[in-house]
Amino acid sequence: MAAQDGICSSDDNRDGRSALIFVGTGCSSAVPNAMCLIQPSDPPCHVCSQALSLPPDQNPNYRCNTSLLIDYCRSDGDHRYILIDVGKTFREQVLRWFTRYKIPRVDSIILTHEHADAVLGLDDIRAVQPFSPANDIDPTPIYLTHFAMESIAVKFPYLVQKKLKEGQEVRRVAQLDWRIIEECCETPFVASGLQFFPLPVIHGEDYVCLGYLFGEQSRIAYISDVSRFPSSTEHFISKDGAGQLDLLILDTLYKKGSHNVHFCLPQTLEAVKRICPKQALFIGMTHEFDHHRDNKFLVEWSKQEGIPVQLAHDGLRIPLDL
Ligand SMILES: [Zn+2]
Ligand SMILES: [Zn+2]
To answer: Do the strands 108-110 and 79-84 form a parallel or antiparallel pair, or are they unpaired?
Structure first.
């Protein structure tokens, strides 16, 4: 992303700072949309067909399930790696971006909710854990709500089961230490030394999803799945409320109209104006968004409104102090 957009990116992971690495910025079905490639329209979908001609790491329109890797550089210089969400495309994201940025492991996991695009990669967590045929390793802490825990216990009983049943042989599976968090802004928790405040938001009127506020030197809010902000949550992250964010990372699904469980661009831009962060990056996009074309529009919007906003892209790395 260009410096004139007001949002700086960097490839340098040896600068002794923390960094946010956007390992996924796409919707649940991810981009390219499979149907655009197996039954192409006439003319073909411009955004998806780029996946056939450009390698993913050179194609900002190639979007895996939304997920953020926080490379947290502590005061002693040690790095801790905190992953928010582990979706259907987790393995692909590891192969592409963990290698590029030399991420050696995941130290803790935080879940926003239990939908498929946030949790269905959990089986593959074993791929980033030390090999142990007897599963005799330190489990990775994973923070989630009670509701998400109950759902995951049904989806992945073998990841939740504490002890082997009589006669059951050891199978190598991801080792996870499940830690229940509250759906409340006032109840922070600490993952790998970094404090997180849950941000309950409505994700469809019958469902609560969590965003997270973190960082002391930079105040960052990450909200991947939202259709409406409860006033208490909005107050907690607003310039006119508890204080201005340095960076708001926010859901936007389609370019026009509205959707029952996600913000689309009109609602996302309205929320940015109300919350008034120093800058904002958008995530969760479908193939309706063309990275370069739509970021040009957003540069103009940013000039008008005085808040730099851009679409994020898979592989975007932003160094900062947390
Ligand atoms: Zn498409
Ligand atoms: Zn969802």
So the answer is: parallel
The burial of 169, by beta-carbon neighbours within 10 Å (0-12 exposed, 13-18 middle, 19 or more buried), is given as exposed
Would you tell me the crossing angle of helices 291-305 and 265-275 to the nearest 10 degrees? 30
CA–centroid distance, residue 93 to ligand 1 (Å)? 20
Separation of 46 CA from ligand 1 center, angstroms? 7
Closest Cα to residue 319, out of 19, 8, 7? Answer: 19
- What are the pLDDT digits (tens) for 103-162? 999 999 999 999 999 999 999 999 999 998 888 899 999 999 999 999 999 999 999 987
Q: Where are the domains of the chain?
A: 18-183+196-320
Which residue(s) pair with 71 in the sheet?
19, 81
Q: Which residues contact 250 (CB under 8 A, 6 or more apart)?
A: 221, 223, 226, 263, 268, 271, 272, 280, 281, 282, 283
Residues in the chain with pLDDT < 50?
1-6
Of the listed ligands, the closest to the CA of 46 is 1
200: amino acid identity, one letter = P
Ligand nearest to the CA of 43: 1
Whether pTM > 0.90 for this model: the answer is yes
Which is it for the CA torsion 78, 175, 83, 90, positive or negative?
A: positive
Ligand 2 (ion): residues with CB under 5 Å are: 115, 225
Q: Are 202 and 230 in contact (CB under 8 A)?
A: yes
Q: How remote is the CA of residue 67 from the centroid of ligand 2, in Å?
A: 12
Total residues belonging to the chain? 322
Q: How far is residue 55's CA from residue 62's CA, in Å, rounded to a whole number?
A: 9
CATH topology of domain 18-183+196-320: Metallo-beta-lactamase; Chain A (3.60.15)
pLDDT given for residue 303 in this prediction? 98
